Every structure is written in structure tokens, then in C-alpha cells.
Amino acid sequence: MQGSSMLRRRNNMGYVYILPWVIGFLVFQLYPLIMSFFYSFTDYNMGNDYSFVGFANYVRVFTKDRETLNSLMTTFRFVFMSVPMKLISALLIALLLNQKLKAMNLYRTIYYLPSILGGSVAIAVLWRHLFEMNGVVNQLLRGLGFKGVGFLSDPNVALVTISTLSVWQFGSSMIFFLAALKQVPQSLYEAARVDGANKVRCFFTITLPMISSMTLFNVIMQMINAFQEYTMPAVITGGGPMKTTQVLAITLYKNAFTYRRMGYASSISWVLFVVIIVFTALIFRSSSLWTFYNDEES
């Protein structure tokens, strides 16, 4: 009886410890999620009165609002450019940091710093000053005898620039790749060298298959983050020039807080949510073709 009472008190104490998280989840995540879904079927405009409009907001997204559709296409282009570049960079850096060198822990810390600072407004402002027409990068190009490039003002270049700038935030993916590389059995490389395989062949036949499960994780996480990207295009270009860098998150923000069309903005957010779910499902569905797990039977 006494043991049961102690167990009950211990369980109650556990409930007390998790209570702040539960309250935060219900108030700041679950409730907004439910209300945004509800408002997506209304013409709510941050006022007191609203009416139900059914699927009118969703119909408008795909048939009437060309700005939103263009933003969705811009988001696709941004994702397809930034995610592969970021993952390739992360893997290359992870391979370098997997070497046995002196002060390697210091190098790993230095390479991880961009992951901590990369998403801040201050860093985005810094990038804007570096790549504007009179910025440091163009001044260096002119000093070398080249013509200045409209990295942020040329509609054909701006989105590529934003996508490239996002690559430097590879820190988290690099850490995961590095952890996966540490788990690759060295005996596989030794056996491959005995068979005459060079480093390139070892990379494609051993390294990539053995870290494919971590690659799957990184692809999904970076894809989700890229679809929700807001800070860099909003701060650096404001969606310009000619809305060529206006990703869907910027359009969502404008509809919600500039035009005060909260109901319509909610429908855009749910469209984005469905797009992310669909792409995640497609990646998971295809993963059986290229993902290898260590516990699989040979």
C-alpha cells in the first residue's frame, strides 16, 4: 500500500513537471492550428464579424489569385535549388571534418556556427549589404576588372542568390552527416581496399549507402524548412525584384497582416501544409529504392 502511494506521488510530480509543456502546446500550437483551419473557411479579417465562405478561399488560391500561385512556384524553385546545394555542402564538410587532424573539435565548432546565426534578421541584413549593387562583393568584382552583378536587383539572378545564401546554414545537416559517418564500419573500407577499390568508388559503394538513412532524414528536414523560409527573402529583397523572390511565406504574411485577410491567409497556410505533407510522403515512398538500414538482412 505504501509503495503504491509513493508511486502515485511520483507520477503526480511527473505530471507537474510536464504541465508547462502541455499548456504551451495547447495554447500556442494546438489551439492556433485548429483555429487557422476553422478560419480558412471564413472571410475573417481580424475583426469581430465574419461569415463562412466554404471552400471559396481555396478556390481563389488556385484559380483567381495569380500572386499566390506565382509565390508557390517561386517556393518550389527555391526548395529545388537550396536543398540539394545545402545537403551537398553539408556532406562535403562532414567528410572533411571526419578526418583525424589536430584541433578537429575547434574546426567542427567553427563550421557549426553558421547554423546558429544563419536564420537571424541581423545576418540577413548583413548579406543584403554584402550583395547589393554597391556592396562589398560588387566592389571586389569591380576592383578585379569585372562588371558589377545585380545579385539582388536582377530578376534572373535574385532567387539564385537567395538560394545560394541559404546554403551556408548547413551546420545542423553537417552534424547529422558527421554522426552517420562515424558509424560506418572501417572494416568495409579495409575490405574494399583489399579488392582494389579507390576512394571514389568507396564513397559511392560504401559511404553513401551506409549513411542513406541519415540522408533521408536531412532531405526531409531541410525540405520542410525550405518550404517555410521567410526571413532571408523578406529581409534581403522584400520579395523583389518584380516578386521573383516572393516565396509563399511572404504572401501569407502580407495577406494576414498587411491586407488583414486572415481567413484567406489561413487557407494559404493549409495549402502550404498539404504541399509539405505530399512531398514528405513522396520522399518516404521513394526511400525504399535508395535507403539502406544497417539492420537489413543481406
Topology:
Elements (H helix, E strand, L loop, with lengths): L1 H38 L16 H8 L2 H32 L6 H14 L3 H11 L4 H8 L14 H8 L5 H12 L3 H9 L4 H12 L1 H16 L3 H6 L11 H11 L3 H29 L8
Helix pairs in contact: 1-14, 3-7, 3-8, 3-11, 3-13, 4-8, 8-11, 11-14, 13-14
- Share in β-strands: under 5%
Question: Can you tell me the CATH class of the largest domain?
Answer: Mainly Alpha
Give me the CATH fold name of the largest domain.
Answer: MetI-like fold
Examine the secondary-structure arrangement and name the CATH architecture of the largest domain: Orthogonal Bundle
Stretches where pLDDT is under 50 for at least 5 consecutive residues are none
Can you give the helix content as a percent range?
over 70%
**Count of beta strands:** 0
Mean pLDDT: 87
Question: How would you portray this structure in words?
Answer:
- This protein is 72% helix and 0% strand.
- It has 298 residues and is an all-alpha fold.
- The chain has two domains: 38 residues; 251 residues, MetI-like (MetI-like fold, Orthogonal Bundle).
- Helix 3 crosses helix 8, helix 3 runs antiparallel to helix 11 and helix 4 packs antiparallel against helix 8.
- The longest helix is centred in the first third of the chain and has 38 residues.
- It is globular and about 75 Å long.
